[in-house]
From TrEMBL:
Residues 1-22 form the signal peptide. Belongs to the leucine-binding protein family. The lineage of its organism: Bacteria, Pseudomonadati, Pseudomonadota, Betaproteobacteria, Burkholderiales. GO terms for biological process: amino acid transport. It comes from Roseateles oligotrophus. This is Branched-chain amino acid transport system substrate-binding protein. Residues 27-369 form the Leucine-binding protein domain. The keyword Transport applies. It comes from the Bacteria. It holds the Pfam family Peripla_BP_6. Keywords: Amino-acid transport, Signal, Transport.
Length: 380
């Protein structure tokens, strides 16, 4: 009798163990951003947004196709460099990740998107705004922010009408993001009846702008637009101050960060800098964003820089598609992801159009007062 009982107990244990193993589904999600280099503060901000989402999903015990999912984050650094970005993308493709969140910069996102497409891996960028990203015909590419056409165009109109710019000059850093948003800004200015009286170029590693700014000072600009990131905009603002250039300074989401006043060494005057973040929440949705920022601060002892909430939503949108499809296999959940409609995230409602762009993408206009960002308005 005892032998029979032991056999039964052993069989039950085996069955339970087998059932437990059957429920364990490992889902690997890649994240790529510049966690080294001049904009590492933005890349780390993104990665922390991904880590927060992954930790919460694991705590919830998400079920996919009847199995309990265990999410793993494979984080890579692209240093904001296109070559390093494609190497990171290939590494994730070789690791057979189930999906990728990233990259941060358009210049790394666009070349990497071909690698993910060839591997059939869905990719959601939380921050790449260059129009070309979703114009390549890669059905694996998505983004949760408005593109440069909307972002740059809106800023151009704002500079010409609201800021009443009469002599507007444009500087860009020659990256896919900087040049793209500057081109769209120029179109927006002209569309609103304004005039761009000069255009200059720098690069995303530059720190000395004396030659460019001295040349521009002679044109007496009232608005200077910079297409690039905060690590370059900060020193540029410092040098504008030392040269006595009092023009309004306008830029896209790349400069629209919490660190800009520090990078400008406290030289920003109130209502001197205007920028737009490619996203935005208002009304009831704002409570969700505020709660996210408070939770982020409590968990990491850091303020959100800019994109972390968009990364957080990107992870959750991807996983929601897996749950709905009943599978984490890219080929099975990709069609469901493409049809995402009305997902309520902390950054607002997410729906994708047939190109992979967010529908009705919002922009949030900011200025800086007392050394901190101050929200002006949400624009659609």
């Amino acid at each position: 009798m005892q032998v029979k009982l032991n056999v039964v107990v052993g069989a039950v244990a085996l069955l339970l163990g087998g059932a437990s193993m059957a429920q364990d589904l490992v889902v690997k999600i890649g994240h790529v951003g510049p966690t080294s280099g001049t904009i590492a503060h933005l890349g780390k901000d993104n990665e922390l947004g991904a880590r927060m989402a992954i930790a919460e999903l694991n705590a919830k015990g998400v079920m996919i196709g009847g199995k309990k999912a265990k999410f793993e984050l494979l984080a890579e650094d692209d240093a904001g460099d296109p070559k390093q970005g494609t190497a990171a993308a290939q590494k994730l493709a070789d690791a057979k990740v189930n999906g990728v969140i990233g990259h941060l910069n358009s210049g790394t996102t666009i070349p990497a998107s071909k690698i993910y497409f060839d591997a059939g891996i869905p990719q959601i960028s939380p921050s790449a705004t260059n129009v070309d990203y979703t114009r390549k015909g890669y059905k694996t590419a998505f983004r949760v922010v408005a593109n440069d056409s909307h972002l740059g165009g809106t800023l151009g109109k704002y500079a010409a009408t609201t800021l009443k710019g009469k002599s507007i000059v444009v500087i860009d850093d020659r990256t896919a993001y900087g040049q793209g948003v500057a081109d769209q800004f120029e179109k927006g200015v002209k569309g609103a009846g304004g005039k761009v009286i000069g255009r200059e170029f720098t690069n995303d590693k530059a720190t000395d702008f004396s030659a460019i700014l001295t040349s521009l000072k002679a044109k007496k600009p009232d608005v200077i637009f910079f297409g690039g990131m905060d690590a370059v905009a900060g020193p540029m603002l410092r040098q504008m101050k030392s040269l006595g250039i009092a023009a309004k300074f306008v830029g896209g989401d790349g400069i629209c960060t919490g660190d800009l006043p520090k990078l400008a060494a406290g030289t920003i005057a109130d209502d001197q800098v205007y920028c737009a973040e490619a996203g935005g929440v208002e009304g009831e949705s704002k409570k969700g964003m505020d709660a996210f920022k408070a939770k982020f601060k409590e968990q990491y002892k850091l303020d959100v820089q800019i994109y972390a909430p968009y990364v957080y939503d990107s992870v959750n949108v991807m996983v929601a598609a897996m749950v709905k499809a009943g599978s984490a296999e890219p080929a099975k959940y990709l069609p469901v992801l493409a049809k995402t409609e009305g997902y309520k995230g902390v950054t607002g409602t997410i729906s994708f159009d047939n190109k992979g762009d967010i529908k009705n993408g919002a922009l949030t206009m900011f200025t800086y007062r007392n050394g901190a960002r101050a929200e002006l308005a949400v624009v659609r």
